[in-house]
Give the backbone structure.
Amino acid sequence: MRNITINVSTTAQLNAVLKTVRGGETILLAPGNYGKVFISSRNPTSTVTVASADPDNDARLFSLGISRSSNFAIVDLDIQRPTQAGERVGTVAALSIGSSRNVSLTGVDVMGSLDNNASNDGLGVVISGSERIAIVDSSFRQFRTAAVISLNKDIIFAGNTVTETREGVNISGLSNGLFERNLVRDMQPNYAFGDHPDAFQVHTSRGGGSSGLVFRDNVILEGNAGGGVGGFFIGNERMNEGVRHDDIVIVNNFYQGTYRHAISVSGATDVLIDNNTVLDSARTGIQAGININRVDNARVTDNLAPIFTTTASTRVVAGNNIDIWDSRSKVGTAAAGLFAADVAAGNATSASNLDPLAGSIAAQAGIGYRGNGAFGDLGSDGAAAAIAGTYMQMFGQDFAPHYLL
């Protein structure tokens, strides 16, 4: 296998090298701004890595596009893409991947304007018509939507941080997706424009239903959004047409907020909702809940939440859940007896406090979220790269079925 290191320091050099790669090259970018970079119709026989030469002084791009290409690893770059004059807000993307295969991004920090106003920004990453794409240990800050994932197969979005966005991760027409160890917090919805924000949203507006989706080990904190922020909203705008999602797994996630749809699944078959913690935040609002609607064959077990609802569903097994105190109905187990003071008061701040208190009924019964390693930041660049490599080896597996047996 070829193993060639190429150092570049200008945009012209980078573009020239990208046109000649055959496989096995590592392209190291000196600190500086490389503007718009576009990789088109490049399909080397083995992985080509594009990375910052100095991990303490990342190379910066205005945007990155990858189209009809394969076998690229993007490592430790910064991409900042504010909306430009004349561009329509919410449409342009800092990072786009289309009709491509075997692409990984690790330690990439993607930013909008950073003017503390997500409403004037575009999209973080758009992935469409692609296969075997992994985004790992990266961050998305200040965008209309952090990630749009549409009409793809085999997507991993793991160990990422999403902050100051109007929407989190929007998914449609996806076959086989793993979303784990992500931190979503401090979103900036624009309620005046009718935003209904969710950290993770699956819908059917394009490509029909999605299948084989696993959401696990994620942490969602509403923060000071000024209104409710949803957690996992598996919606279905085409239920009446017979379109359904299938094989949906939502396990071991932590949510704190004031939105009924902390975890909601509609129009799906074969669903598992297990070992999640759903808590209200300190802000006055609607009680958070776990909800299923027109679902067939679901298991809702070992969860903590103030509200559980089941509507027009069949073959539902629910058990070993704990109802958290609901200020509206005045029933349930007080959060103060289950969690550390900050979490029980609706102000989760420390990762170490997200687990139920030792000795509590939740801890003894194994109910609710348990910390399972790092989330939102997977550690050093070396550790993250190793984890990303492991994720790439997972492709070809079905992420959901073994949970559903």
Q: What stands out?
A: The chain has a mean pLDDT of 93. The first strand starts at residue 4 and ends at 8. The helical segments are 11-18, 341-344, 361-365, 381-394, 401-404. The first helix runs from residue 11 to 18.
